[in-house]
Amino acid sequence: MPLPPKSEPKIFQILIRTHQTTLFFTVPPSTTIGFLKEQTLSALNSGLNEEEDIPPVKEVGDFELCRCRGIKGKDRNADVQREYDILDEPESTIKGIKLANWEVLYLQFKDEEGQPLQIVASDPPIDDEEDVEPQSTVPSSPPVDKGKRKATEYDEEDSL
């Protein structure tokens, strides 16, 4: 028996990446690219552009949202060339341009003359060798020995 067709998600998680920052947006599929750009502008002007050398932006025309079309190169750690497509139709919807749930978009800033700058974004590492185990604030319980144990007086009282 064939499986029923997969239903469209009712909410999309869209990630927008620049430098070492990722913005997360939870939006319905009817969201337009123009609205995503407005929300990105709002996030950038909330203090983000003061960090990590992110260029200052004043309006949505100061940057473009781009989709990664492909990666040229054999090794993920070696120098790879990414190709991007600019999402330049502000009235297009997420569903209309077939963005996937959890898709990563990239910011391409423009210089003072309106010329596009190179996209600067670093993807988080897959294997982070510097991961530190989070310290628990809950006291750990003593180790539990497997197998049989001797009955205590307390156990004998409970069984009566």
From TrEMBL:
<protein>
    <recommendedName>
        <fullName>Ubiquitin-like domain-containing protein</fullName>
    </recommendedName>
</protein>
<feature type="region of interest" description="Disordered">
    <location>
        <begin position="116"/>
        <end position="160"/>
    </location>
</feature>
